[in-house]
Amino acid sequence: MTRLPDPAAPLSAEEAARAFDLLFDGDLAEADIASFLVTMARRGESAVEIAAAARAMRARMLSISAPEGAIDVCGTGGDGHHTLNVSTAVSLVVAAAGVPVAKHGNRAASSKAGAADTLEALGLDLDRAAQTAEATLADLGICFLFAQNYHPALKRLGPIRKAIGERTIFNLMGPLANPARVRRQLVGIARPAYVPIYAEALADLGVDRAMIISGDEGLDELSLAGGNDMAEVKGHSLVAMHRLSAAELGLSTHPVDAIRGGDPAYNAAALRKLLQGEAGPYRDAVLLNAAAALVVADAVPGFREGVEEAAETIDRGLANALLNCWIAYQ
Predict the structure, then answer these.
(1) 242 and which of 27, 29, 154, 230 could share a cystine (Cβ 3.0–4.6 Å)?
(2) Is 86 annotated as a binding residue?
(3) What's 121's domain CATH number?
(4) Does 161 belong to an annotated binding site?
(5) Is 103 annotated as belonging to a binding site?
(6) Is residue 173 part of a domain?
(7) Structural domains in the chain (count)
(8) 83 annotated ligand-binding residue
(9) Where in the sequence is the domain holding 149, given as residue range(s)?
(10) What are 11-23's pLDDT values in tens digits?
(11) Residue 19 lies in a domain
(12) Annotation-wise, does 289 bind a ligand?
């Protein structure tokens, strides 16, 4: 029987590529798969392993075409803070500002409302959104790529991951396997210590421009509460590590609890109010993260200009109008 390499120590690029090919396509016992994933996770995944897993997923995913310069704004999730849907709101604001956004997302796993749940509560038909994703991305500048529709290779691993009941490398994969094959990304990761590791993996894979961000509280987005770790990747190089706080950009600081979310209906109502101009911590969180996305897209020269652009996009009603057009497109 084919065997997986021993994951007790970091794998070489060749070993990692072989291992993930076997995980997806090999004749392996479920217990061996579980042991491999758990051992690697508890040891701590390397950049080489993360990149190999991403390549394996990309090779097996269903893809769509995307306009030049399309971006994704996506977090790994699992931060346990149950916040409102910041990256979903950011996607609407950035798209309304003129940057095509191929939003990759899923239903909630550890929170009460994931991107799919909240968009559905807002009135987006997820089945139609999947069927029209390529068209809405071309025509409106936004689409939602419901992860379960594009990654059939993960179906076999689903029950094994559920039985494991703890984080594995596949919890890091969502942002790295966007079906639109975007080359610009704002990636939130819930573990600050992983920012440089994840950045190294993205550099291995190659991007036009990307930022990996993590709030000090273990938030998988830029936090208003305190400091944030950031890594910037261009091409195949990690070009910079930064620290950033909301206060540096003239935004108010707020504890994470100030943007705590609820069920899909609650989060949808909050998002709609935000797009209609409601002020408060949610707006500030969206402005902060939208600024980063606009910088990644090369749509603004810096974060301060990004905050201003995002605020103007909301206040002119452009993001709210885009959401209405997207729902009506169906």
Answers:
(1) 230
(2) yes
(3) 3.40.1030.10
(4) yes
(5) yes
(6) yes
(7) 1
(8) yes
(9) 71-328
(10) 999 999 999 999 9
(11) no
(12) no
Would you say 178 is a known binding-site residue?
Answer: no
149 labeled part of a ligand binding site: no
* Model pLDDT for residues 309-328, shown as the tens digit of each residue: 999 999 999 999 999 999 99
Q: Is residue 27 part of a domain?
A: no
Whether residue 188 is annotated as binding a ligand: the answer is no
Q: Is residue 246 part of a domain?
A: yes
Q: Are 35 and 26 in contact (CB under 8 A)?
A: no
Annotation-wise, does 112 bind a ligand?
no
The answer to the question of whether 305 is labelled as a binding residue is: no
Ligand-binding site membership of 58 (annotated): no
Q: Is the pTM of this model over 0.85?
A: yes
pLDDT in tens, 86-141: 999 999 999 999 999 999 987 755 456 788 899 999 999 998 998 999 999 999 99
